[in-house]
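Give me structure tokens for this 550-residue protein.
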Amino acid sequence: MRIALLQLNPVVGDLAANASAIAGAVRSASAGGARLCVTSELALCGYPPRDLLLMDEFISACRGHLDRLAQELADCCPVLVGAPVAAAGDYPDTVRNAAVLLRDGVAEVAGSKVLLPTYDVFDERRYFTPGHRCGLVTVDGYRVGVSICEDIWNDKEYWGEHRRYPHDPVAELASEGVDLLVNLSASPFSLGKQAQRESMLGAVAARIGVPVVYVNQVGGNDDLIFAGKSMVMGADGTLLARAAGFVPEVLLADACAALAGAVAPDAPEPEAQIWQALVLGTRDYAAKCGFKGAVLGLSGGIDSALVACIAAEALGPENVLGVMMPSPYSSRGSVDDSVALVQNLGIRSRVVPIEPLMRSFDAALSESFAGLDADVTEENIQSRIRGNILMAMSNKFGKVLLTTGNKSELAVGYCTIYGDMAGGLGVIADLPKTMVYAVCRWLNSVRGFEVIPRAVLEKAPSAELRPDQKDVDSLPDYAVLDDVLERHIVRKQGMAAIVAAGHHPETVRRIIGLVRRAEFKRRQAPPGLKVTDRAFGSGWRMPVAARYAC
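Here you go.
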């Protein structure tokens, strides 16, 4: 049976546009010989819809679009559409995360999601009632099992003691006898997850002895990025087909045999995957929020250079404005490096010196600060002056302000609230400083020239808010800092475990203390694109007013 995997890029809440995209893909696939089309999880409303799901009118509107879509596609092959549905006969306001079968002009629920995740970025128990079992439908005489995302991530043999739930709905479904298993998914991107996903799906297919069709969403929605890479696993666990990553695609595949050229290549380098994810996330965030382009501050440093490159690739260089705001502490090299970057990328630029504004602030605060030495207060004022200038540019030109802070800085609070943290999107907020350097070097390598000037890569990192300032004056070496942060934030290790790994106790104690104290800043940061297993975003829920010490 030829199946069409509809790897689409929905806009959360835009039901009419999403339904139209599904209809167009189904017609195209039907014309190509598809006997069944499958969308991603909640494709009709886009994932994650979050608290839109608490609105009765939203759920009713989804039902109306499903019924109209079924009638519109009555002459096409059947299609399984992911959508939220009110559960008939259940308690009032009960909603299920469902796969709805559109066939012969009728829309009927084919199955509901059984396992509802509540870890990391997921909070599905807030919105949905779990289904009792996976679905089962018959298409062209084939018994097709229908599962949704998390349902397939609990195989006992694959996960062993690490599985999250006491029962496996896919195994229960397979015991009833199926010829094919489909999985409607909205599984966010994180570095390294695709390899694990393919390994896991292959193991499930081999264990139950039937092909597995996995359809994933593509696109960026808020802080989450979806890579797509929908696939078909043969009954022996072999990868038969895979859609391209980070782009929409309608993939026609045979569930039982490999088709020539059906496995799209996947970039092996982590830097390439991060680049693709951040470009897609930036492009979709700007477009789906209605921005005309982007503005960012250019400091001459590595972080703003990488964000400028991503923005130019995502939005087109003509739609990106880089603003240079030199102070008396800015080195000549930083200004020259920013100018070189602007020329290499072809973006627009402006120069707004901030020394006159610094003098105005000094004068305004002179009486209040009389007799007190200059300290970090004056440094932060510089950053906040720049933040005000950039926000003014954003307001005036209708461009989203991209913040340029990295994960290392955000983790330990080496950033200024209402200053360099001001903005609409943190493009590299989940990228450790060491990975920022790695991506920049990779980019220069694949472009074949130094799009990011060599001087930017080689200079010592500095905020340039006081004479001869260097990051190492305030922070440990970034290689040390990033390893401690990786262990503490992503692996959830406490001080004892990190020290046992070879780090100095006082260094670890200091870093963990900085992470705790910076929580109030992160709570007020813009959304940051998630590319690691644990980011400072919707999946990070640490208290602000707390005294626990690891």
